[in-house]
Design brief:
The protein is of the alpha/beta class. The chain is built from six helices and six strands. The structure holds flavin mononucleotide. Flavin mononucleotide (FMN) binds next to α2, α3 and β4.
């Protein structure tokens, strides 16, 4: 009787140990956030596609003072802001639980070859040390431009992965390409 009890206890202990080891071996799921600014809607579409593929949370960066809708005016204003390194005020600094995310996709329209100033504000005002940042961009010919280098300068203590640029004109049909990219990075849900 005692022998049987000992054998059952040993099997139970082995099972518990095995389960505990399995839990230790399995990598913890990464917590992912998509952050974006969009002036005319293209980058918002791409951000939503990344959210669809990764099951992440999403946060829109909104400037306190909206940019003009007139193309010439916004192009002129953006040129001045970018050349003077101006960081416009944004409505909300970050989601309250920003510290809990491991991976942050950061998206912007390409403005004069780099990220739009509200994204520069967001990256300057928050701490991304130890986090992985994945840039993405919509553009009309410049691709990622110099945005990855600029993000690297703004977040020197983060790991910056290679970004994905999508042409604004074809963003509505880019869910497949975006999902394939997110999958390749290992961040699909
Ligand atoms: C102020 C401004 C500057 C731009 N500069 C560039 C540029 O340097 N290179 C480029 O390929 N496209 C440029 N574009 C085009 C946008 O990057 C493109 O239309 C983008 O998809 C817009 O994204 P959104 O709809 O999310 O605002 C510029 C557009 C604006 C309004």
């Amino acid at each position: 009787m005692f022998k049987r009890f000992t054998a059952i206890t040993a099997i139970a202990l082995a099972a518990v140990t095995f389960t505990a080891l399995q839990a230790l071996a399995a990598p913890a799921a990464k917590k992912i956030l998509v952050v974006y600014f969009s002036h005319s809607g293209n980058t918002r579409i791409m951000a939503t596609q990344i959210k669809n593929a990764s099951g992440s949370d999403i946060f829109e960066v909104k400037p306190v003072k909206a940019y003009p809708t007139d193309y010439r005016s916004v192009v002129d204003q953006a040129k001045k802001e970018i050349s003077s390194n101006y960081k416009p005020a944004i409505q909300t600094k970050a989601p309250a639980n920003l510290a809990s995310y491991d991976v942050i996709f950061v998206g912007s329209p390409c403005w004069w070859g780099t990220v739009a100033p509200p994204i520069a504000t967001f990256l300057t005002q928050n701490n991304f040390a130890g986090k992985t940042i994945v840039p993405f961009m919509t553009h009309e010919g410049s691709g990622m431009g110099r945005s990855e280098d600029d993000i690297r300068k703004l977040c020197p203590r983060s790991k910056i992965l290679e970004g994905l640029p999508i042409r604004g004109g074809s963003v509505k049909s880019s869910q497949g390409e975006v999902t394939a990219w997110v999958k390749k990075l290992g961040f699909t849900k």
